[in-house]
């Protein structure tokens, strides 16, 4: 960081102009830093990645590679929507350190891409905008911060958009300390303060442009007004402006230091050695105990270094941990047997994980892989294991596949690499069976990594092929789509006969349908989603089924009389034989039951399966020649339809058990909203600091869009889970509306 020599008379490390033409290489794990950028949509993550690429010489102008494409948002959907929708890897070289920058979408619908980035990274940069006020540290950002804290992931905060009107670095830093710092706000402090004014002489005048930074530890000024960083001594009057912030920073570093004598020496008036403070700061950052705040702004037109980019690169290379310092995910054998913990050793057993899967129209399937142990080489055969996601359309599999070419992505380019050591990331081509979340290991020593936690997709989108040609390609296109995105679930509903994509939100669904069209050439239409209703008899009734037909040769003769009565919820269908005197021959009684059950499965009112009834066969007639199995099946079905015509048929709707995790501030609105959805609130319970779990039972027909509505209601802080509980009678007015709608559609 700022106390280390960074090379050159002007205090900057040599960069590598034109590095876009070759892939940065890392021969050892200690030469790698894996950093994920996290933040609210619009905070400036992608712009920051582009500024860092420019500062390191990876590109010659901001955000662009040689073919003119963007280095991060290069997907055609991203270009159309003008926002990130997927995880992007941008590797850059700073000195001899390879930095893998993982740019994640900020919109909540793409949290699966964010989780993949967290899995692949060893540290996180939380990007907040000084121009967004409290929105820059929104509920979703706080939730991710807490997730990182739970696993001890090192974090730093970068404040962007300092050039915007009404931006305030001090105010945003204080807000971050208050919201993200929690019980330890002094562990989240700035390392630099922005300098305002044409000559960089004002520290606090937010109306003047930001021209540089002043280091709180080194008390040196870093001026970016020329387009490149220059270093100078502070001018008269500048040091008193940073005295209070500097003292707080030193005290925050000392509080996390392993040297218990530092505080006494500091309070005794001793001027602590800058090298000692910097080393303690780096250790505290690497261990996730101190979270520095930095400032950043993009480079001006024609400039090569944006404000704060070099300071940020020094933090990443000096303060963030190497892959050697982070624990690898637990592993087992594909059969569930125990295995020793992995170590980040290039000579160890191969263990890598597919963190993202995408398709290229020319190359085919491309897998972004993080290697946790061993070394991955092209043209070798590896074992691919995928388990535990069968409910989302990812069938369990264990196959051997040959690794294709290895490459390092850079925008749309794929630059070849010779091998990938433990701790590094790269892309693997043509793994036809590997899906997101799969483990790659040695053929003779297969392993399976514990999967990372993925949110449940809770927004149903029913689709149908637009044409016959699309129908022929739909199955394959959907299979590829689900293989790429484990936050999506594909359902073939046997009751409603609908194809349903379960997504995280409307934007997630829009991108999925757009990818089906543009990437796989499948045009689909979204149709109203139907829930799986049931029908039952509301009263006891007796009916007769008569199937008598006579034509040339053998005719058809079968008459049966049944009694239908309702049963308790969950009883299914019970068939009882009470025929006396052989009115229906014994060999045809199973035929009557088969016809009854077949008609019940087809429905008797609106086409929904019939449940919770007892059907009793009480009488009938047969013919010695014309009666047959088929005739009595038909008679049984006719008897069910006849009974339904004369009885009250109730509709049963599915009810879900819902658990809503929400901030305490929104408990009242959430409970009121659930009650308005015909829900029964069962109770609440604490779920951690400032969080409450609301439990309720809600008809599924009322929560089809709850994933979207809850996000709006809770300002992005709410999450919910759902599980099927039972079917219960639908209110008569609502059932009547459904019948009228069905009649008008005929």
Characterize the structure shown.
By secondary structure, the protein is an alpha+beta fold. 26% of the residues lie in helices and 29% in strands. It contains 16 helices and 35 strands. The strands form eight sheets. It has an eight-stranded antiparallel β-sheet. Strands 2-3-1-4-5-10 form a six-stranded mixed β-sheet, with helices on both faces. α12 (589-602) crosses α13. It is elongated and about 115 Å long.
Poorly predicted runs: 3-20
Helix share bin? 25-40%
- Mean pLDDT rating: 87
Radius of gyration: 33 Å
Structural class: alpha+beta
User: How many β strands by DSSP?
Assistant: 35
Largest sheet composition: 8 strands, antiparallel
- What share of residues are in beta strands? 25-35%
How far from one another are the termini? Answer: 73 Å
Produce a short descriptive summary.
With 746 residues, this protein is of the alpha+beta class.
């Amino acid at each position: 960081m700022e106390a280390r020599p960074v090379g050159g008379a002007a205090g900057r490390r040599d960069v590598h102009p034109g590095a876009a033409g070759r892939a940065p290489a890392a021969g050892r794990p200690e030469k790698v830093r894996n950093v994920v950028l996290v933040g609210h949509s619009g905070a400036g993550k992608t712009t920051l990645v582009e500024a860092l690429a420019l500062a390191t010489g990876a590109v010659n102008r901001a955000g662009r590679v040689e073919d003119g494409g963007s280095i991060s948002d290069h997907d055609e959907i991203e270009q159309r929507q003008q926002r990130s929708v997927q995880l992007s890897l941008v590797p850059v070289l700073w000195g001899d350190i390879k930095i893998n920058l993982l740019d994640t979408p900020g919109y909540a619908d793409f949290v699966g891409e964010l989780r993949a980035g967290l899995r692949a990274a060893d540290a996180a940069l939380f990007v907040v905008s000084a121009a967004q006020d409290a929105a820059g540290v929104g509920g979703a950002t706080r939730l991710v911060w807490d997730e990182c804290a739970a696993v001890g992931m090192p974090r730093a905060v970068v404040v962007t958009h300092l050039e915007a009107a009404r931006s305030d670095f001090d105010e945003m830093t204080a807000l971050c300390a208050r919201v993200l710092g929690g019980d330890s706000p002094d562990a989240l402090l700035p390392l630099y303060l922005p300098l305002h004014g044409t000559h960089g002489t004002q520290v606090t005048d937010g109306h003047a442009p930001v021209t540089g930074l002043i280091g709180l530890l080194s008390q040196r000024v870093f001026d970016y007004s020329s387009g490149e960083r220059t270093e100078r001594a502070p001018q008269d009057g500048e040091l008193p402006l940073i005295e209070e912030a500097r003292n707080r920073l030193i005290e925050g570093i000392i509080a996390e230091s392993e040297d218990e004598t530092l505080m006494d020496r500091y309070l005794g008036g001793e001027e602590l050695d800058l090298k000692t403070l910097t080393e303690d700061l780096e250790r505290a950052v690497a261990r996730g105990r101190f979270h520095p705040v930095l400032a950043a702004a993009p480079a001006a037109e024609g400039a090569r270094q944006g404000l704060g980019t070099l300071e940020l690169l020094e933090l990443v290379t000096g303060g963030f941990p190497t892959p050697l310092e982070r624990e690898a995910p637990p592993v087992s054998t594909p059969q569930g047997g125990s295995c020793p913990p992995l170590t980040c050793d290039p000579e160890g057993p191969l263990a890598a994980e597919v963190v993202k899967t995408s398709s290229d129209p020319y190359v085919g399937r491309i897998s972004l892989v993080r290697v946790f142990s061993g070394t991955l080489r092209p043209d070798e055969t590896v074992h691919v294991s995928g388990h535990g996601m069968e409910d989302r359309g990812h069938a369990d599999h264990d196959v051997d596949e040959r690794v294709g070419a290895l490459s390092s992505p850079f925008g749309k380019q794929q630059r070849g690499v010779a091998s990938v050591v433990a701790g590094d990331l790269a892309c693997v081509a043509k793994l036809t069976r590997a899906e997101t979340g799969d483990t790659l290991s040695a053929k003779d020593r297969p392993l399976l990594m514990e999967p990372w936690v993925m949110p449940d997709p809770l927004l149903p989108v029913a689709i149908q092929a637009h044409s016959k040609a699309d129908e022929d390609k739909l199955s394959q296109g959907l299979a590829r789509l689900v293989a790429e995105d484990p936050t999506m679930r594909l359902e073939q509903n046997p009751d409603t006969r609908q194809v349903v994509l379960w997504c995280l939100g409307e934007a997630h669904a829009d991108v999925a349908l757009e990818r089906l069209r543009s990437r796989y050439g499948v045009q689909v239409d979204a149709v109203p989603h139907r829930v799986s209703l049931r029908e039952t008899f509301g009263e006891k009734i007796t009916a007769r089924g008569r199937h008598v037909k006579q034509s040339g040769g053998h005719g058809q003769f079968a008459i049966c009389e049944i009694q239908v009565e309702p049963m308790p919820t969950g009883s299914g269908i019970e068939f009882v034989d009470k025929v006396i005197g052989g009115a229906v021959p014994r060999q045809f009684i199973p035929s009557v039951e088969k016809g009854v059950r077949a008609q019940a499965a087809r429905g008797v009112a609106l086409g929904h399966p019939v449940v919770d009834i007892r059907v009793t066969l009480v009488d009938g007639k047969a013919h010695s020649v014309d009666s047959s199995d088929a005739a009595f099946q038909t008679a049984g079905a006719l008897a069910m339809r006849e009974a339904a015509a004369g009885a009250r048929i109730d509709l049963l709707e599915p009810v879900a058990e819902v658990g809503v995790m929400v901030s305490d501030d929104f408990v009242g609105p959430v409970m009121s909203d659930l009650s308005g959805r015909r829900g029964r609130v069962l109770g609440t319970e604490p779920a951690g600091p400032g969080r409450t779990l609301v439990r309720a039972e809600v008809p599924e027909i009322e929560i089809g869009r709850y994933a979207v509505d809850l996000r709006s209601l809770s300002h992005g802080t709410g999450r919910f889970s759902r599980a099927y509980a039972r079917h219960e009678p639908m209110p008569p007015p609502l059932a009547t509306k459904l019948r009228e709608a069905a009649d008008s559609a005929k």
